[in-house]
């Protein structure tokens, strides 16, 4: 075979001017692939193909390099491959003479329409999808940036009745264009406990799969084929679950709430959710297990278990905006972002300074587009931004309080969103988690002052007169100074919260902001319910000049909350309760 190939290659020497087979027009059906990865932000492109001798070649070339140099390198590589494959015994070389030497094959690139690509064209422009590479007699169809999966992962914990949302990471592909096929293990014929090796395909062909009770005890397998909007598909990947589907917990605290949120609101309305989801970094401490939540079954505090509940709860709200607090970075990346993305929500994350958790805000893609993002860390903004110069100077008079404020890692997440159906409708969506200490009322007042000044800059200066939705865990009851300041627009210098940690840390100043804000969900009896405390700490504040409340989704009943004594529990994933309301423009 190689003798015939060498003979054919010799006949092609000097024939570079006239491409065989019509100049590379319509390629043969059995053409090999040459895969090109070319990303504008990277200086090099990569080229992968397999030579006729079966050896794989993976080359890196500068994108700005002339095509001719890349083709010369391919020719050299191909000749080396031939040289290795064509090695003879001493006797054969003696008999064949120079015939044993490897010949450099003709290498050319032709565009989809059959025209030869000039050798001075830069690599980035030369290697187009559908082009044909000739290496001697061999033909390769160029696939530029074909869809490819970089990660496919199933959650570690699978519960019957709860959605399984795989993490799908891809290059040059989009999850909505990928093909999904779900399989379950074959149950043993004898009805025993040991599962068989065979897999049976389920009827599900969607990205998200909810296993039924019939699948308890069986593992799942997912096969995903990456695709893009042009109906190009790459090689499929398969992943098997690490464990079997387990029985669910039965009725959950959010089941009745889902009856109100089965459908997404119309385009004239916005469903907003605010929820402190309890970071794993806090739930798994010895203090949490033995002091804060001793009533909660240890397995129900595990993040793998709680994520099942969280994903089912959040996806069942059919929300347009979701503001979350205490979000572990790994939970956002590996669990929440992939899960909510499958339900049409785009997520943005802001980590706290020197912490493993932070804030996450999600918005529905077919309702909103992101215009800009304006996140800040309170302590950093206070000392570095001219916007807060006056407040910073006032605070400097109280060094003990100033030190505490600057030590806090609290952040503010601010997005400006625009309606996809009415460009005149924009929203400033803010999300925060204020300092937690019961005696930190003065610290929270300073943090709110920074937040309101920053929101004013965005919603009045950068985008004049756009409505504000301000969500978060404010760690403030309705009787607190922070709540009064937000809802009334001002705080007096003699408010009791200025001396919340004693006279030694008194910090008196008069503060104001220009917004007319109201708590959309009112003042519930509690949004946080643990063994030693319950109270209302979470709010969705809205601009009452521009927005009004259509409905507030009722909170779970007291009986549901206390079924397992307090929160979190086997039927509720956090120590807080989600706030949900439907809003509309006035």
UniProtKB/TrEMBL annotation:
Residues 78-98 are annotated as: Disordered. It comes from the Eukaryota. Its main location: mitochondrion. Residues 274-576 form the Endonuclease/exonuclease/phosphatase domain. The keyword Transcription does not apply. Keywords: Exonuclease, Hydrolase, Magnesium, Metal-binding, Mitochondrion, mRNA processing, Nuclease, Phosphoprotein, Transit peptide. Gene3D superfamilies: Endonuclease/exonuclease/phosphatase. It holds the Pfam family Exo_endo_phos. SUPFAM superfamilies: DNase I-like. GO terms for cellular component: mitochondrial matrix. GO terms for biological process: antiviral innate immune response; cellular response to dsRNA; cellular response to interferon-alpha; cellular response to type II interferon; mitochondrial mRNA catabolic process; mRNA processing; nuclear-transcribed mRNA catabolic process, deadenylation-dependent decay; positive regulation of viral genome replication. The keyword Lyase does not apply. GO terms for molecular function: metal ion binding; poly(A)-specific ribonuclease activity. Residues 146-246 form the 2',5'-phosphodiesterase 12-like N-terminal domain. It is found in: Mitochondrion matrix. InterPro entries: CCR4/nocturin_mRNA_transcr, Endo/exonu/phosph_ase_sf, Endo/exonuclease/phosphatase, PDE12-like_N. Its cofactor is Mg(2+). Belongs to the CCR4/nocturin family. This is 2',5'-phosphodiesterase 12. The gene is PDE12.
